[in-house]
Amino acid sequence: MSFSEQKDLVDRQRYDVAALGKAITNAESGQRGYLLTGHTLFLDTMEQGRVETHRLLARLDKRIAKADEIRPELERVKQLVHQKFDAIDKSIQVQMRAGSYASHLTLSKDKGRELMKLINDRLSEMDGKLEHLRGDYEQEIRQRVIEAVIGAVLLCMLIIGVLLFSYRSTTDLLEQMLKTQAVTEQLSHQVDHDLLTGLPNRRSVDEHLETVFQRSRHVSKPFAIFFMDLDGFKHVNDEYGHEIGDALLVEVSSMFQKVLRQTDFLARQGGDEFVLVVGSYLHRMELVQLAQRLIKLFSRPVIVRTMALNIGVSIGIAEYPRHGKQVKQLLHAADKAMYVSKKNGKNSFSFDGE
Ligand SMILES: Nc1nc2c(ncn2[C@@H]2O[C@H](COP(=O)(O)OP(=O)(O)OP(=O)(O)O)[C@@H](O)[C@H]2O)c(=O)[nH]1
């Protein structure tokens, strides 16, 4: 039985003890009423009190079997009640035998009051014990509640701790994954790109050309390769040092990008060589105009760190399918055309074989 159930049982026992006192008092009142007035109606009251007393005694007996703390007092009450009812019966019989109203005689000899006092004392003891017991159970219940609350708080703290820990671990893991991903992306970018200018490198040129070539072949459309080599770049290196040469390469890359369309692909092939792939165009004139725009970029000195550097660009152009039906062949053709431009006085463009 839980402490809460035991406490309820004690409450019911206390209720029965109080009711028992009232029932015995009722029986006694009936007796006194009859002895004082001679009205038989009081005998009913007395009988009801007696019946209720026995009923409550039986119930207490049953309930106490489960919680035996007040057994000695109950047994004593039973004896006293027995004596009390004996005394009541005797006084009634005496009155009845007398045949006429003789209250003073019978009541003066009645020991009921004395017995009633003894009964009430025992009942008070029982109630006192039960009250004490109830307090113990209440204390236990309070203790359990406190323990449950502490347990719940600890459990919550544990759950929060676990959540925080897993959150931290997940965040750390995520951070680590993002870092790894960033490093991987950086590495893969470095594989495909030129470190100095950030442009795609030679490796990317091959890959891109292969893609453009397959697409153009499939849709039977032309594409063009511009092979570009700076003029006079060595002089810049020799005159101002490699650092300025590097800065010039970066500047030139950005100048080239400004005149290109989004679909054009510019890469640094190596040294001062660049490759431009024009993925789609309708007329050759577009290529001519693009080459002219590129050359025009160098009509004025390029400013690098306040220094005015005079360079140019020689361009060789090869078109698919006119100048070759394979990527390698086309690259070679563009390179060849570039040398023709160099030979023709630099800072100019040539189509392969023309
Ligand atoms: N600063 C710098 N120089 C480089 C780099 N890579 C190659 N070079 C130099 O670029 C120069 C390229 O040589 P060339 O193409 O003969 O030089 P050029 O003066 O343009 O000669 P032409 O092409 O005949 O006009 C060489 O001196 C290389 O050492 C680089 O990453 N940075």
TrEMBL record:
Its EC number is 2.7.7.65. Pfam families: CHASE3 (PF05227), GGDEF (PF00990). Keywords: Membrane, Nucleotidyltransferase, Transferase, Transmembrane, Transmembrane helix. Residues 221-354 form the GGDEF domain. This is Diguanylate cyclase domain-containing protein. SMART domains: GGDEF (SM00267). One of its GO terms (molecular function) is diguanylate cyclase activity. It is an enzyme of class 2 (transferase). The chain crosses the membrane at residues 145-167. The keyword Transmembrane helix applies. The keyword Transmembrane helix applies. It comes from the Bacteria.
